[in-house]
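User: Hand in any protein.

Assistant:
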Amino acid sequence: MSELVVQARGLTKSYGPLVAVDHVDLEVHPGEVFGMLGPNGAGKSTTMRMIYRVSALTSGSLRVFGLEAGRDDRAIKSQLGVVPQMDNLDEELSVLDNLLVYARFYGLDRALARKRALELLEFLELSARSKDRIRELSGGMKRRLTLARGLMNEPRLLILDEPTTGLDPQVRILLWDKLAELRGRGVTLLLSTHCMDEAERLCDRLMILDHGHVIAQGPPRELIANQVTPQVIEARLEGELEPLEKACADLGVELLPAVNRVSLFVQDGRQMLEELERRGLFLNGAYIRPGNLEDLFLKLTGRSLRQ
């Protein structure tokens, strides 16, 4: 079996009394796309910062490429590429110069750095903007350039913190295609996301975090099949919730209420609606759809707003 790219046991990070990551076990295999899901404050970014060695462990063990975190950090960082949540490009430099300056951190000579930078600009469809200043770029272009920068050292592991947040659908799909190409070249990808489509489309395996704990882990479709019913009824909530709650309890159906809507997790949506109507309960605006990753996420973490 190939050596694990990331192996964590009991990974913990505390800030005084606050435990941001609480005894997390994690394995990332070579060549896979591993995704991390969770509400704001769940511990995703903190876990990533420990992996790419800008944050120390409070306790537990962490190995990256078989190297020990805290002892072999320089060797670990040399094999990583990082795409942070916020673009932090140098606005005073051109697109090309942003890559060339960054290459110095890895000791690349000028000729190799320039060759690599031009290849990446072509790969991410930015060649025509190589001389532009950062302030002249759109948000999507900045995101693609940040990805290019993270690839300058030809990393074995690319870590991406919410890589497509805030991007329009066309740019998001382009980035998904580029990440799939990288995976095809053998690059291991570790990403966090709030986009359920992204997680389900890209990831071989997922880890769902909440309050610093791992609450689910596995392939997306397997997680959905194990914990979400084949069909979900979505409907507007009008009137009192209690009669519907009682009916669902009698029928053994899980009900997940929100502010103005309800979700019913059922085997057969049409049959369930007919049964509710026989009991005098009519769900306005009801529609039936397959269970999905968002349903799983909300079932496990709840619908309440997180800051």
